């Protein structure tokens, strides 16, 4: 066993040193905040695509989703996967090009809050302040999900205490994000996205081949672990056993894409339209394969692993345990197991680094320089951003301290908050010229508050006492917060003064170049 751990450690060491080396290399190329936060808008198509998708999916893709599918089958979180697939496709096809062009036209905006300020001529910087606060709050929770996933990964592989495992993962993410900025994050995300996809494709295929070699079919393996067509018809059938609320809640996850700053910033950074076209094809292909095979891992994991044992270990570790069984128990290839386990670490790191960088840009570029110190020089802004990275990481670390933290729940809460607050405003900013400053403020506040009230404030009486609206209805808060925010934007915009002529002219100019 010691030898096995040694080989896995060697794989992890090589991988982590490579990521840190990339961060160090790109730290020498950051001559301005535009370089540090947006890579000088020089992102190539392949890097942009895989970076956007890798930073999107996180440890949720390789741990949260397969674990949920293993327990409930496709009739549960299969709808979440479908919603995310639809949302990704629409985001790349509808939002990506328009957002890139508009942020350039709107005074070369480097961040989403800065775009809102420039788009709506917000001289009092109200939108920037509100946006930055929302980003910091919900990204702290989102980043905590990644750190929790990292803690569970190291705990499962090396048998070390969860807190030590959490600390190691947080430290590595901090180091190369701190050093390299946006381009380091994007290049490492490109590598990590490739590794994630290889792991997703290879492991379930190998697991099924080993089952077949032992004379056990997939259906026989499922039956041995409590799944039959009669007892659980919804395990392999998304339509069986579902109600409207669960389907709407699952599909509503797709709405979140329109409001994810760490994904939208990749659109803003793409070099040109030719590269953008390439990015769309690569990203849609990647996310289709990844989501399908993440669900496959959940199904195959139920057949390949002992279900009762997995529930004791933790359902969200099913992919980790499958890798160990395939490459260590079946193939006696611990170094290869280490490489594939790095795929899980890649999913975790690719999201956490992006969220830390976006949070840093909001605090330093938007709040510090944009509101409090307008005359701050580049060196000071970058120093503030790096302090912010550390502070947000510490907050996320505290949130993830509980070893029983659910990756799925943490991601769900953060995704809803960001999607409801920013999604409707991004869409109306880009496609409805009547949107004004008052409507934008109303949309941001109403979307964020709806999610907070729905998920966190008990107000409905139940047998166990007061519960939240989310618990009482079973409806995902994003399915409520998104339309509420959109409605507030429309009503308030129409009820207040129309946008200025120069705002309308800018909107038309962006539309005309398409």
Quaternary class = single chain
Termini separation comes to: 60 Å
Low-confidence stretches: 32-40
State the share of residues found in helices, binned by percent.
over 70%
Structural class: mainly alpha
Order of helices and strands: HHHHHHHHHHHHHHHHHEEHHH
Largest sheet: 2 strands, antiparallel
- The pLDDT mean sits at 83
Tags for this model:
single chain, 514 residues, mainly alpha, 1% strand, globular
Provide an overview of this structure.
The protein has helices at 2-27, 33-38, 45-72, 74-105, 112-119, 126-158, 162-213, 218-224, 244-252, 261-269, 273-304, 307-313, 318-330, 334-372, 378-399, 407-431, 437-456, 469-473, 477-495, 501-512; strands at 460-462, 465-467. The chain starts with a helix and ends with a helix. Helix content is 79%, strand content 1%. Residues 32-40 have low confidence and may be disordered. It has a two-stranded antiparallel ribbon with strand order 1-2. By secondary structure, it is mainly alpha-helical. Helix 3 (45-72) runs antiparallel to helix 10, helix 6 (126-158) packs antiparallel against helix 16 (407-431) and helix 7 (162-213) packs across helix 15.
